Amino acid sequence: MQLDKVVNFHKVVGDPTRIRIISLLKQGPLHGQAIANKLGLKPPTITHHVAKLKQIGIVYQRRDKNTIYFYLDQKKLEYSANAILQLGEVTNVRPEMSVEDKDKLSIVKNFFAPDGTLKQIPSQRKKKLVVLAYMIRGIETGKLYEEKEINEYIKQFHEDYATIRREWVMNHFMYRENNQYELNPKEMWPIEF
């Protein structure tokens, strides 16, 4: 998760009314009037706070005839709440993940052909991270990329662009939302090249 998304999540949920709404929705879906009654607030106030929670993706709505019910996406809430802990893990590179510069160059020589293509995706995590960090060097910081652009970029290295793209996201090199990709800050990377 991008650093600004982590900060925004905590800003949004850092409101007492929103925390109370989250705790109510944790018990099950409710419509706006029911939330307002339980919290002793007016419906427009609830609409405002629920809109903020929907913006960060932890609340979604479904219509049942003329009534709109709000649901809590608990998985998204847990993921977003734990993102700050994951950030701490990633910035403190674990000892087994540290790779000396000469080792990085050796790994690149072993896994890349002279024409720059990747011979195979390493199965060992340490080597895979070096390869992923090496390949991502051509991606610009702060630029949003469409999935098609990322695929074309990866194809210059390897035909299995889906696996490499997924590995970049899973290992916090990139962030993906709505089929758009953005490079994460280097502080979030498990390894740099």
UniProtKB/TrEMBL annotation:
The keyword Signal does not apply. Pfam families: DUF2087 (PF09860), HTH_5 (PF01022). Residues 1-92 form the HTH arsR-type domain. CDD domains: HTH_ARSR. Gene3D superfamilies: Winged helix-like DNA-binding domain superfamily/Winged helix DNA-binding domain. The keyword Glycosyltransferase does not apply. InterPro entries: ArsR-like_HTH, DUF2087, HTH_ArsR_DNA-bd_dom, HTH_MetalResp_TranReg, WH-like_DNA-bd_sf, WH_DNA-bd_sf. Keywords: DNA-binding, Transcription, Transcription regulation. NCBIfam families: HTH_metalloreg (NF033788). This is HTH arsR-type domain-containing protein. It comes from Pontibacillus salipaludis.
